[in-house]
């Protein structure tokens, strides 16, 4: 059974034997399973590679670096909402604020495309979340904007 289904762990083997009509105790099956050396190695956690840290540099000209930040809060009756804030780091001008119950990736990309039409693209965009930086850089590969994680 294990030779045929090599990736079956103890639990699948035990459940399969129970379905076949064997009424062995799980402790007995586990003991024999270990003695036969059928233990599978534990799966390791998939590590996300770290993005390189870039030192903070104060931008000198307008539209050279934007900062994206997601914020979360609740309304007075308990309903949560999210905001997406886009700020020009050189003059601290707020370029966009998106507020909604949820902000899917398509909505974020649409907001950035609207900002691209109005202001053009910056040289870099600073994000405070690594996952968001990865998502952003994979969605916008046709542009020459670098995502910086702080």
Automatic annotation (TrEMBL):
Ranges for domain Integrase catalytic: 55-150
InterPro entries for the chain: HTH-like_dom, Integrase_cat-core, RNaseH-like_sf, RNaseH_sf
A GO term for molecular function: nucleic acid binding
Coiled-coil segments on the chain, per record: none
GO biological process assignments: DNA integration
PANTHER family cross-referenced by the UniProt entry: INTEGRASE CORE DOMAIN PROTEIN, LOW CALCIUM RESPONSE LOCUS PROTEIN T
Name this polypeptide is given: Transposase InsO family protein
């Amino acid at each position: 059974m294990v030779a045929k289904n090599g990736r079956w762990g103890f639990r699948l083997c035990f459940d399969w034997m129970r379905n076949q009509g064997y009424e062995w105790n799980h402790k007995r099956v586990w003991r024999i399973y270990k003695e036969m050396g059928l233990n599978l190695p534990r799966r390791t956690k998939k590590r996300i590679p770290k993005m390189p840290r870039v030192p903070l540099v104060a931008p000198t000209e307008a539209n050279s670096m934007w900062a994206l930040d997601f914020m979360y809060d609740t309304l007075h009756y308990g309903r949560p909402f999210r905001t997406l804030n886009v700020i020009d780091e050189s003059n601290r001008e707020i370029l966009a604020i998106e507020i909604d119950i949820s902000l899917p990736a398509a909505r974020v990309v649409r907001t950035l495309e609207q900002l691209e039409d109005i202001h053009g693209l910056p040289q870099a965009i600073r994000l405070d979340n690594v996952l968001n930086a990865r998502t952003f850089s994979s969605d916008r590969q046709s542009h020459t904007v670098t995502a910086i994680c702080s």
